[in-house]
Amino acid sequence: MISTFFRAAWPRSGLADRRGHQCLQAASGSSAPGKVYLIGAGPGDAELLTLKAWRMIQQSDLVLFDDLVSEEMLAMLPAHIEKRYVGKRCGQHSLSQQRICQLLVEEAQSGRTIARLKGGDPAVFARSAEECDALEQAGIDFAIVPGITAASGLSAWCGIPLTHRECAQSVRFITARMQSAESEPDWTSLVGNQTETLVFYMGLNRLELICQRLVQHGMDPEMPVAVVEKVSLADQQMILGDLTDIASRVREQSLNGPALILVGEVIRHRYPVSPALLNTIRA
Ligand code: SAH
């Protein structure tokens, strides 16, 4: 499906910039410097894109998007804009982060306006810093449009508050991409704060380990846990349990992700929202 969005690269010609660097010029002949918008696309539901994001996308020549940008969102993008997949999950089409940075710089130097569309919020586990560094070094103007991070989408679509006067004074977003024991989070500090909601990103295949570690470090084994896949999309799935049984419950459902793991007393304060009410425009 994603390959539908591939197009042949825009024809370009070589040209040296003010600093004497080799850069590329768009076939249109425009030599004005390009610019880049790093845009948060939200968790999936296309209407969660902000008005500002939508306006910036419409002004762009090229959209570079990740695999977490939903097909629903991509289908909504204006037909005249070139769309290129630069995700890192789908085998043959994947680009290294370094190559994505290069591509942003090259395309902007050719005079194009680029919407760099990322799932959720660009400031949350999205490697925006590397892209901003590359753009800054190349002297390219860029701006950031925030998006709704997956945890906020989960909260709305599942009716689970992230903070609550009675039990959660803070919320912590944690990456579960632990390459080695050294890169594991500071479990003691995660467990030490009894009034904090924990949200693990990228943790689906480490769910069991996360639960074990939290219990080993002293968290109540009956602490509620919610695992939510495909937040805000039509096939969203939520599985509830506690630290002792959530891993086996999730295994029975064979989820593929993307999914969040939310741990905290706030789950006991879940309100009965009807996300179907939000679907009326789409229907
Ligand atoms: N910038 C993104 C996070 C990117 S890290 C944001 O702000 O949301 C990728 C992880 O985000 C996934 O592994 C998953 O844990 C989470 N995620 C992103 N979209 C999601 C969705 N629709 N449903 C559940 N989890 C999601």
Automatic annotation (TrEMBL):
Any GO MF annotation of the entry: lyase activity
Class of this enzyme: transferase
Start and end residues of each Tetrapyrrole methylase domain: 35-246
Domain of life assignment: Bacteria
PROSITE patterns xref list: SUMT_1
Keyword annotations of the record: Cobalamin biosynthesis, Lyase, Methyltransferase, Multifunctional enzyme, Oxidoreductase, Porphyrin biosynthesis, S-adenosyl-L-methionine, Transferase
Protein name: uroporphyrinogen-III C-methyltransferase
Species: Bowmanella dokdonensis
Gene that this sequence comes from: cobA
